[in-house]
Predict the 3D structure of the following.
Amino acid sequence: MGEKQVCSQCGRDAAGCTITALVSGAQPSSAYFLCGRCAAEQHASTLQTIEEADRFIAEVTEQLATLEKIIVKHPQMPEVPKGLESLAMTPLTVYGTLQYHLAAFKSRRMKLVTQSGSEERLRYEIQQAIEAENYELAAELQKQLAQSNPPTS
């Protein structure tokens, strides 16, 4: 168990950020390892909508804020027992993994925004502006939407 684990996708050290998954097939007990960065990218790739990306970004941001408070309150990190280095999750490794997820979710969100048609994107941005009570921005976006969709007679 003290053996160094490397990411099955990129070859980086997967210690502390190891995700073990069962692989279906002939050998149901086989496993693979992902570093925090690859795990985050894989998770982000499953997001299908801007709304979904926004929800995950908000959740991870909240989790990071909570973890920061814990780390500040308890700056001494626990010792990792010998032999468990490749599996140990300390507050700092969790923090790093969450940072990877936040970056991957933001990157995925940007891809979803650029893939969306301009009309769909404007409607979403109008909705977000209204929810944030930024009515001036919502009105400006509504004008842009009206210009991109002139009424047909």
Observations:
- The longest strand covers residues 19-22.
- Strands lie at 19-22, 31-34.
- The chain has a mean pLDDT of 82.
